[in-house]
Amino acid sequence: MKKLIPLTIALLAIPALSLCAADGKALYEKDCQKCHGADGKGDTKMGKKSGAKDYSTAKVQEELKDDAAVKAIKEGYKDKDGKVVMKPAEGLSDEDIKALVAHMRSFKK
Fold first, then answer.
1. CB of 97 within 8 A of CB of 74?
2. What's the CATH code, domain 22-105?
3. Domain positions in the chain
4. Close Cβ partners of 76 (under 8 Å, ≥ 6 residues apart)
5. Which of 21, 66, 71, 99 has a Cα-to-Cα distance from 55 of 20 to 30 A?
6. pTM score, whole prediction
């Protein structure tokens, strides 16, 4: 019986953790879509103004490295002149950021 209680608690905790775990699509829609667009093409007013890349193209996806995407999300992104074009995301865990990058990868055609 003593072994059954921790096992039961663990089995109940897994779905609860899943609910708390990052939902990349929901995070993207909340924080990224206004610039990068629902389809990742960057074809929005803000995306065009900031020069957002088209994440639906294979070439852009191949050039984008996960560690660079994580860094941009965590630290923000500056253009070659040092102008901030994307502010750092706030309040996201490493799991949230991984989920965002995975969602960005889903735009590839």
1. yes
2. 1.10.760
3. 22-105
4. 84, 86, 87, 88
5. 21
6. 0.75
